[in-house]
Amino acid sequence: MIRHWLVVGATGGIGTAVARELAKRGCPLTLIDRPDSEHTLAENARDLEVRYQAEVSVAMLDVLEYDAHARVLDDAVTAGESFGVVLAHGVMWPQDELQRDSQTLRRHHEINATAPMAFLERAAERMETAGRGQIVALGSPAGDRGRRSNYLYGADKAALHCQLEGMRHRFAGTGITVTTIKPGPTRTPMTAGMDKLPLLAEPADQARRIVDGIEKRKSVVYTPPVWWPIMHAIRHLPRFIYDRLDL
Amino acid sequence: MNDRWLRREFEGWGRYRRAVSLAAAPVRADELPGLLQEASAGSTIAFGAGRSYGDSALNDGRRTLETAALDRARSFDRERGIFACEAGISLAQILDVIVPDGWFLPVTPGTRFPTIGGCLAADVHGKNHHVAGSLARHVRSFDLLLADGATVTCSRDENPDLFAATAGGIGLTGIITRVELQLQPIENTFMFARHIRTGSLAETMEMLAIHDEEWPYTVAWLDSTAGGGALGRGEVILGRHAALADLPVSKRARRLRRPEPAKFAMPVTPPVSLVTPATIRAFNEIYYRRGGPEPDRAGLESAYRYFYPLDAAAGWNRCYGPRGFVQYQFVVPEDAAEATVREMLRACQSEGHPSALTVLKRFGDGEGWLSFPAAGWTLALDIPVRPGLLPLLDRFDRQVADSGGRVYLAKDARLAAETFREMYPDYPRWLAVKRRVDPECRFSSDQSRRLRIDDDVRAG
Question: How many domains does chain B fold into?
């Protein structure tokens, strides 16, 4: 398994838990998040050092500053070093606002799709130089099929899924693997106040399954795994049935 | 930043009491004073892992601060076994960190999923209470965020009155933000356990009393459905941490194992309770006979299976269906114990409210002012909520109070205000501290209003 991991969105609900799980398995980490989370990043880094005596550094990055992507990567990774990236950042704003306001929609899509896609391309370049690496990003079952209540979030994730699939194709047979994680609803700040959701998974359980999938270099990981049969069924429902369902 | 407060439904672990409040979930402890200020004069309570059974952490129509994301380790002295952390960390996560270095929780309740802050606020006890006391005895110090926004450190030397009022103070003195624990050393994560099947209540109690002398962990499971001469029969479970020499060679290589995740989960709440008098009877009968023909057996067990048997099934509380259940746990002094336990087991049977899971233990001496444990015997009954249960429990309260006993506030969902005052004789001392640090009653809960603690504070 790759040792050095960069976790982008390291103070988020799933990002925090994934960083803990990687540290527990002995990986040195670089925690990356927005400049305004500097204080939280420092606290999280200290937590990992105390818990697992992990080697942790932190870096600030606003993913919308595209020009900063290369600099942050070059600071975190020495040239030729093999490393992994877990892209765990994202937002989910209310769908009705996204439908109503184009600027909000544009920003939402940029945070969830365009900016992380660009970041992953910069990371992939460096992995190509090293000949080894692992790209992991959080997609979503919501990106598997458009659903009336959250298709704009789903569209962001679908874009990311497609990029990851293409990268997997591009790097097939090389030392670079690409893993798409599709977590079902998880108890994180993103789902706060949405307690009508079924089956809210705990972040620590999600992280354990995610890192298990990373270790096995899987292509796609649904977590909890029950989302694979659910989404498989939903994806293949004929449209005339799907459109009548209240999902 | 009002968008930090979202409307959310909360429930106690028994799922009998629920509440809707405006909730905020800070990711850093230093956000708490600001959030408290935003709550202005209104009432706030901390909600951790949602493992108190009743309404201790519920605040209907008011505010709730969710503390589960404040779960960072702060320091760990691996030589001396001193662990400091934020209060929202779960016992499971603490074990995950401390076990590989040969340390264990000094005191643990029957589940590893509550937060350490919640455990201290309830001053929890374990099967080793008769030798180790409750959790507070092993807490070196903690930080407490007070109503005025200041954070103070409390220990036996520093702010000792706040220490005694907060351990067992059920979240009403402030928000615990940091806890420093003295851990106990272990050589491995196995227990050497002995299970003795008993035929009557007298035998169960005698076995517990005899073995308290030599075993650090003792508890009895009771078959709640056995009547007549077999009333109070069950299994006395004795345990000690296994020594390295107890382990076969095959177990020595991986002797310090981290806890494993739950194996099963109850993903939904069934429309009706699966726990009915018939299933309770069947379960108790099977469980009583689980040892097979051997009435006294001993051997090695995983510490996690020993301490946390129910943790293997996540969300087991949903089995009780939409109406939930009440856990009724009380302690009564030695002289009243046998008669009280006998009468309650009989009353549960004759009135059609059998207990699904029934646990008996003898306590040592108690600690904090509102702490539950006190010298005597404690019985815990898990009873599905059905019509007629509440009057029965009111009668139990009367009996417990008259015997000089008390019920456990962290499990309580329905105790009457007057009875509470009879049961907790140190309440006036606690109230004096509460009035000093929180005269406007900024920290209150559905429970504190039901027990009319808030009225007492404001009247002061």
Answer: 1
